[in-house]
From TrEMBL:
One of its GO terms (cellular component) is endoplasmic reticulum membrane. Its main location: endoplasmic reticulum. It comes from Smithornis capensis. It is a multi-pass membrane protein. One of its GO terms (biological process) is cellular response to stress. Belongs to the derlin family. This is Derlin. The chain crosses the membrane at residues 17-43, 55-78, 98-115, 122-138, 158-190. Residues 234-255 are annotated as: Disordered. It is found in: Endoplasmic reticulum membrane.
Amino acid sequence: MSDLGDWFRSIPLITRYWFAGSIAVPLVGKLGLVSPVSLFLWPDAFIHRFQIWRPITATFFFPVGPGTGFLYLVNLYFLYQYSSRLETGAFDGRPADYMFMLLFNWICIVVSFCSSSNFDNILLLMIPLIMSVLYVWAQLNRDMIVSFWFGTRFKACYLPWVILGFNYIIGGSVINELIGNLVGHLYFFLMFKYPMDLGGRNFLSTPQFLYRWLPNRRGGVSGFGVPPASMRRAAEDQQGGGRHNWGQGFRLGDQ
């Protein structure tokens, strides 16, 4: 038990709470302590009946059963792996910036689901949010060669789409994975691609209250993953200028 406790405490702070919540809330529903029906995102109940907890519980809840248990465990693994890698890699020392990314992606996912014309749908947000994080990691490490099941090797930029297909095969719904990828792309485009590669303005910035709540730590990596190609070329053309540290990626499955 001490080894398990040490491993759990070694998980980065934000990922640790997200991971723990994604175990605790499904367990509460599985044991019948709370009705699982009250944990889904039901747009009609959320908007018209002011059941404001639903977008939060739907982020952590997953109906674990004989037909969904493997899908749940696989995506729990993706949560642990890629959230940890972003939090300790590109966002190292900047927990507020990482929390802002999660909040932005979460809000976009909630809006996309609640804007659906069918308010009778009962929805889960766990997989879309995980996929949005995985997508951002894959784009920041897009040229890295990663290994997937059965020794398949490809560039990291293709990983979200490979996992979309993989989740579909083992029982997922393509819509959840697709929305997660699109939201992840929106964040990546607005935060990195548009201002850095295309020279546009920066539309996203972390609110100050998050910095007060989660202050930056010294010793963090400066920068976010791998910059767009045009930014790397501009940096290489500068004479006498300091090189920017854009962090390092990880191979799939590395610990």
